[in-house]
Amino acid sequence: MPAENADELIALGRALGDEIARLEQELAVAEESLKRVLLEIPNVTLPAVPAGGEEANVIVREWGTPRSPAGVKPHWEIAGALGMIDLDRAGKVSGSGFVFYRRNGARLVRSLINFFMDLHRDEHGYDEVWPPLLVNRATMTGTGQLPKFEDDAYATRTDELFLIPTAEVPVTNLYRDEILEPDSVPMAFVAYSKCFRREAGSAGRTRAAFCGRTSSTK
């Protein structure tokens, strides 16, 4: 029995392979475009949250009677006079917007951190966490810092790691991609960390912010 000529079938198979490769490439581009759009969508706010900027904020509760601002000095002048902070030398060492806490100022900062951590751990039952200061891209993406705020983040040059803008970033990702038992949630965590991010200063200028922050997350 004479063999059939398979050239036409071979050509058809190649054409189908090329079409599949083209469609897969289009799909990859479409999926990446969709992913970028989804990552830009903000969280949905509660219906009770007023629309607008600071002028739309609503006072929920007041306590006490505000004192008259007449003759009141700003806290940096009082703390500077008491030797608790040193802005001039911090500016020399780091730049504008930085601060040295000194003597009782440094002691006050440490005491407030301990007070906050102990209160949430011992009285409110939060799980105390001491998080890493460097996290990967997946972690920053998981909490919404990337891709929208990548220009405001500090990153290492070779390791693709980011300095955290707040302790909430590593803590929120603590159980990322894990399936938890229903009776293990909700979980409550409290953490302290340094915070590294760029922030808009006066007149729209951008300044570096390296602060310490205690964060509680449920």
Tally of strands: 8
Task: Tell me the strand percentage band.
Answer: 15-25%
Taking pLDDT < 50 over at least 5 consecutive residues as the criterion, the unreliable ranges are none
Arithmetic mean of pLDDT = 90
The biggest beta sheet reads:
3 strands, mixed
Rg (CA only):
27 Å
Distance between the termini: 76 Å
Overall spatial form: elongated
Q: What structural class should be given to the helix and strand makeup?
A: alpha+beta
Strand order of the largest sheet: 3-7-8
Number of helices: 6
Return the string of H and E elements. Answer: HHEHEHEEHEEHEE
Helicity level, as a percent range? 25-40%
Description:
It contains six helices and eight strands; from the N terminus they run H-H-E-H-E-H-E-E-H-E-E-H-E-E. It is an alpha+beta fold. Strands 3-7-8 form a three-stranded mixed beta sheet. Strands 4-6-5 form a three-stranded antiparallel beta sheet. A hairpin with a 5-residue loop joins strand 7 and strand 8. It is elongated, with a radius of gyration of 27 Å. The termini are far apart. 10% of the residues are buried. The mean pLDDT is 90.
